Amino acid sequence: MQLLLLGATGLVGSHVLELALADPRVSGVTAPTRRPLPSRPGLSAPIVDFDKLAQDPSIWTADAVICALGTTLKSAGSRERFYRIDHDYPVEIARLARANGATTFVLNSAKGADMKSLFFYSRVKGEVERDIMALGFERTVLVRPGLIDGPRPEPRPMEQWAGKLLSVLKPVLPLSLQANRPEAIARAMLEAAVSAAPGVTVVPSQNLH
Ligand SMILES: NC(=O)c1ccc[n+]([C@@H]2O[C@H](COP(=O)([O-])OP(=O)(O)OC[C@H]3O[C@@H](n4cnc5c(N)ncnc54)[C@H](OP(=O)(O)O)[C@@H]3O)[C@@H](O)[C@H]2O)c1
To answer: Which residue, 5, 123, 137, 161, is CA-closest to 69?
Structure first.
């Protein structure tokens, strides 16, 4: 299976990349990024301007797509920019991949994704889910982690504080309220890319441990 991976330089995406390159079921990975990845056997990592996606079919031709691309409101700097990155980029790439024959799309969404939510973040995740489902892939998988707890190069004080709190409370919290490790999310996303059931599948946070 040829895999198209978005967000390969991120916390979840970098784990997907490692798992995919070691998986005999994956024949090759294309990982378009905005900063270079070290060259590896089986990996093609073109540098792409995500605001002007090249139409070159060789980048977007794959059997399955895993999207772990996204940002934070703070890094994006505005709601408009956040929407562009977390909604428009995945949907535009999904459209290109669909047009070039991809049959499976696996989206790293978020717990609480809901286009009617009062929270902007959850609304954006709900809208990206809706617009990707509308493209009619044979298999669409919406993976909805809670807090993603793992080492990051940049400080995210709120997330780090919440991660510490959840880890103290872990023994008494149900799985659905515990933080998710990026390794577990990546494993679930790769399995979904290889063998999801036809139709739309939602993977809730309690299944990402
Ligand atoms: N943080 C949480 O607790 C949490 C919880 C639930 C769901 N999520 C969602 O899960 C997904 C993956 O999370 P993560 O923690 O793995 O994210 P991450 O570590 O921040 O990685 C995000 C990826 O998206 C890429 N990206 C960000 N802005 C971009 C831009 N303007 N142009 C091109 N690429 C861009 C990054 O590339 P660079 O390396 O070049 O920046 C990186 O590869 C995101 O959609 C996030 O919203 C997060």
So the answer is: 5
Q: How far is the centre of ligand 1, averaged over its atoms, from the C-alpha of 118 (Å)?
A: 22
Is the shortest distance between the CB of 10 and ligand 1 below 6 Å?
yes
pLDDT above 90 for 55: no
Residue 12 has pLDDT above 90, yes or no: yes
pLDDT in tens, 112-147: 999 999 999 999 999 999 999 999 999 999 999 999
Pocket of ligand 1 contains residue 7 by CB under 6 Å:
yes
From the CA of 9, how far away is ligand 1's center (Å)? 8
Q: Give every CB contact of residue 132 below 8 A, 6+ residues apart in sequence.
A: 90, 91, 94, 105, 107, 140
Nearest Cα residue to 13 out of 92, 98, 90: 90
- pLDDT band for position 54 (50/70/90)? confident
- Domains of the chain in start order, with CATH, are 2-146+182-207 (3.40.50.720)
DSSP for 34-54, please give it.
SS-----TTEE--B--TTS--
Q: Is the CB of 40 under 6 A from ligand 1?
A: no
Residues 2, 63 contacting (CB under 8 angstroms): yes
- C-alpha 164 to ligand 1 mean position (Å): 20
Please tell me whether the overall predicted TM-score, pTM, comes out greater than 0.70 for this model: yes
CA 202 to chain centre: 13
Residue 206 has pLDDT above 90, yes or no: yes
